[in-house]
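User: I'm curious whether this sequence folds into something compact or stays loose and floppy. Could you predict its structure so I can see for myself?
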Amino acid sequence: MLQQPSAEEPARFEARLRNVGSKTVTLGMGPTLLFSDNAAADDLQWADAIVIDPETYIGPWEDPFRTDDECWRYPNDGRTLVQSILEETEVAPGDSITETYEVYTRGKTRSCLPKGRYYFQDKNGFRSGALQGTDSMNKEARDMILTVVLQIDGKHRITVQAQNPAIEA
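Assistant: Here's the prediction. I'll summarize afterward.
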């Protein structure tokens, strides 16, 4: 967590994916961590009560606002789908990809930052080795599932956990 919600700003957290291996890896992903075309796939979890909004060129999709009770809200009650192209990113040993997210309550009717545990998952392509020519995401690529869990307590305090990426053979 970078900051808890306040009257001046919404909650903010940082997610980081670090290459702890000895080889460069190439990731096939959307424009930022956790936001690929498949983030809304049926086999992945994606919370609906709160919105995580990356501080990149893909968001925000609508203007978040603060209500009189100092709740930061995202106006849309429906799901926000991300349509993106596949981007390939090389991550050398010891390097990482980092993204900052703001946290909002979804819609105008829910209680502010409802207490609970919220999962956000995304599936990305993964392979070892540097980019080689145009066929960089070849048949040797595997899938990697990224998972971030937000826990909100009864006082609207947020804690964030990331699970080790699950790499599918």
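Summary: Residues 133-139 have pLDDT under 50 and may be disordered. The first strand starts at residue 11 and ends at 18.
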